Amino acid sequence: MPRAVKFDRYGGTDVLRVVEVDRPVPGPQQVLIGMKAAGINPGEAAIREGAFAKQWPATFPSGQGSDLAGVVEAVGSAVRNVAVGDEVIGFTNNRSSHAELVVVEADHLIGRPTHVSWEQAGALFVAGTTAYAAVHAVSLKAGDTVVISGAAGGVGSIAVQLAKILGAKVIGLAANHTWLADHGVIPVAYGEGVADRIRAASGGKVDAFIDTFGGGYVDLALELGAAPDRIDTIIDFAAAAKHGVKTEGNSAAANTQVLVELASLIDTGRLEIPIAKVYHLADVRDAYQDLAQRHTRGKIVLVP
Ligand SMILES: NC(=O)c1ccc[n+]([C@@H]2O[C@H](COP(=O)([O-])OP(=O)(O)OC[C@H]3O[C@@H](n4cnc5c(N)ncnc54)[C@H](OP(=O)(O)O)[C@@H]3O)[C@@H](O)[C@H]2O)c1
Fold it and tell me: If you take atom 34 of ligand 1, which residue's CA is the nearest one?
């Protein structure tokens, strides 16, 4: 029987179990995927811990996971865009991609280009579309200077590269300076004195700010002179409400057109999804404990 990650109550990583489940059957517009890789995301941990229990209550047993890449095992009677054996990248909104077999809507899938590894493909959806939305929210153009917090994390590592592609000068706040410098980003250490270090690195001109970490970066962005409509935070919604800055994230770009664009950038060597670590599905608790340290360099990925 196929295995899937499930949890029966809100809690820490100890509530996660890998259990045998019935083989899922795709509906007419759906596709059954044999998962090859599936990214993990901090938002899934927050859901599991019950942080969104009021807005989006879970039904138990709950699965988890949105991102995935894999091979088509079966298609519903009305599906025309993919066939058995196709290699695909996609997403599900049903919290279910952390499993050996996953049912996905046919129109949530794209083909996997040749030069996109399984791990990069499986990690692409949430972080990639979020980075894409954030970069577009702050209207970057050639010559702009943008500061990005959490610059070497899942979303940040993609956002810095997309901002570079648009011609911006990119200052990345992180502890991981080597990867950023190798990708044409000016690395700046966060912590006390960060505002002065950013001013020194930027020459005093900060046009835009993307916050993927929270904890005061919206205030810092305003202090550095970025206009509110050129600041985007994907995490600090209280600061956004207070200061009228943007909060565009995953939902603003969660579609296959953006996935195609991102996959094509990877395929042609213009975008890298750094893979911090690969865990087997059976070690899903370890994977989320690793992510909870908040020092992931790129993406953590599950494989069957
Ligand atoms: N709104 C949305 O649609 C949306 C979508 C996806 C994610 N999110 C949220 O966005 C956040 C980031 O997600 P993610 O997947 O990129 O997380 P992640 O992969 O865990 O990355 C977090 C990064 O933050 C850096 N960091 C740690 N302490 C920092 C500090 N004091 N200042 C600046 N950076 C620091 C870490 O880098 P170093 O090791 O270099 O310190 C790490 O690489 C999460 O809270 C997530 O829930 C929101």
Answer: 150
